[in-house]
Amino acid sequence: MRLKATAHVLAIAGLLLGATALTIPAFAQEKTITGGFDVGPGGFPKNFNPLAATGGFTWLKTYFEPLVIYNADLSALEGDLATEYTVSDDQLTYTFKLAEETWHDGQPFTSKDVKFTIELASNPASGSVFAGRLKAISSVEAPDDRTVVLKLSKADGGLLSILAQLMILPEHALGSMAPESLATSTWWSTTPIGTGPFKFTKYVTDQYVELAADDDYRLGRPKVDHLINRYFENAAAAVAALRAGEIQFTYVEPDDAKTFDGNADFRVIEGDSFVVNYIGFNQKVDLWKDERVRQAVMYAIDRNAIIESLYGGAAKAAQCGYVAPHLVPQGLNDYAYDPEKAKALLAEAGWDKINGDKPITWLTYYGTPLAANVMAAIQAMLAQVGINVVPRVVDVPTYNGIVYQDTNPDWNEFPLIYAGLQNGPNPAGINAGLNKSQLPPNGANIMRIEFDDLSAAFDAALGETDATQVDAKWQDVCRVMNKDLPWATMWVANRYGVASNNLVDFVWTPAPAGGPYADHPERWDIK
């Protein structure tokens, strides 16, 4: 298949952290778009290294770029730094033709940069979250400056989606650094060099990032001169700044989105988050070894009541990792709310001896009021059947430091989690969190799930080369998830953003992990 490159960048954005005074630069006679476009309401002011990022690609994509990218409605992949690509019939050879572009320091972008980036991202010493996901690549060849050839040891139906989140990095700037030093390097937040439509100019700690237009960008100089991404302490502060005209866009919670209905000054954007929220059972602790205990958790939670009362109906209950009809087979257990059944299962499993009413830490990085209310509701429901969970909310860096640890980890720090993982638009997204081949430090299987039937189902789906059989293979994954319950899958919720009507040709899509997707920031303008 062949693909023309029409790609581009995502982002504007920003958010203000804390109550301290904030001074945003004023640019006389220059156009500036300011927003909250990082990692959901509030943002994540330490999210600069795209090799380690688990979200926020909307913003990172304004100055870095991947080879390929989803289109704005997330229905198909197209080229970005690759002008086109071809895949062999056996899906073992991928050939990319590269765009003519320069790095922000004027050096030429070539195939050497792509080779360097893929090999670096495949090296767990770099702190890359892609290491386990790129295992199928056996070699990266750069036969000339404008061509890259990937050879695979086995077919991988998720590879292009993974490459869509892998930002290409400059070999000439990073090649001399030891891979293990990159994770803590200040380069990412001081002098990063990309190929996108905007250049990184300044980061004011925990307050904002400032970018400037790249006059030489291959798709044309951006219409605005500056993008500013502000960081906020919470979603309410971001909404207040939006209403005050200080920013032109932010993610919002469902309840906040409703308050903008009918307001002629703003546009509410709603769509599928493509993220499945789940309760994760750490398989390294004995609490969850018995399948009946995991089933009891599902039966104890009235998901439909939570969806209606807290999400206002803007979510779909998930019986596996997916809710898309073509991925969900008939005959699944819907785990309808049944606290008496939950109690009976716990009694059969001997829960009193396994744990009884001892408190169980329930770790999450979700710090929004909505998430707090959801977890409180679940906590009360689980308490009714004899499972005593205690929520612990931490920021994203702390969370990642806990769950990805692979040297003498303290499993009791995270026996249970509340999290989300990309479940689309390519269903291969959740493979990283469930396949036994994806255990940390190389992968994102943070619950250390090593279920043979589940891993075999994932491998079969990823290796399917007959397009007419792919959906059936992912339905098999769904069946195994529903039966074995590696996670207690909750729901897939909608996601919301609000944009000022002063923005012109502005594109935002509620994308998993913040995309990236082709939103063309070089075309954005402001009245």
UniProtKB/TrEMBL annotation:
<comment type="similarity">
    <text>Belongs to the bacterial solute-binding protein 5 family.</text>
</comment>
<dbReference type="GO" id="GO:1904680">
    <property type="term" value="F:peptide transmembrane transporter activity"/>
</dbReference>
<protein>
    <submittedName>
        <fullName>ABC transporter substrate-binding protein</fullName>
    </submittedName>
</protein>
<keyword id="KW-0813">Transport</keyword>
<keyword id="KW-0732">Signal</keyword>
<dbReference type="GO" id="GO:0015833">
    <property type="term" value="P:peptide transport"/>
</dbReference>
<dbReference type="GO" id="GO:0043190">
    <property type="term" value="C:ATP-binding cassette (ABC) transporter complex"/>
</dbReference>
<dbReference type="Pfam" id="PF00496">
    <property type="entry name" value="SBP_bac_5"/>
</dbReference>
<dbReference type="InterPro" id="IPR039424">
    <property type="entry name" value="SBP_5"/>
</dbReference>
<dbReference type="InterPro" id="IPR000914">
    <property type="entry name" value="SBP_5_dom"/>
</dbReference>
<dbReference type="InterPro" id="IPR030678">
    <property type="entry name" value="Peptide/Ni-bd"/>
</dbReference>
<dbReference type="GO" id="GO:0030288">
    <property type="term" value="C:outer membrane-bounded periplasmic space"/>
</dbReference>
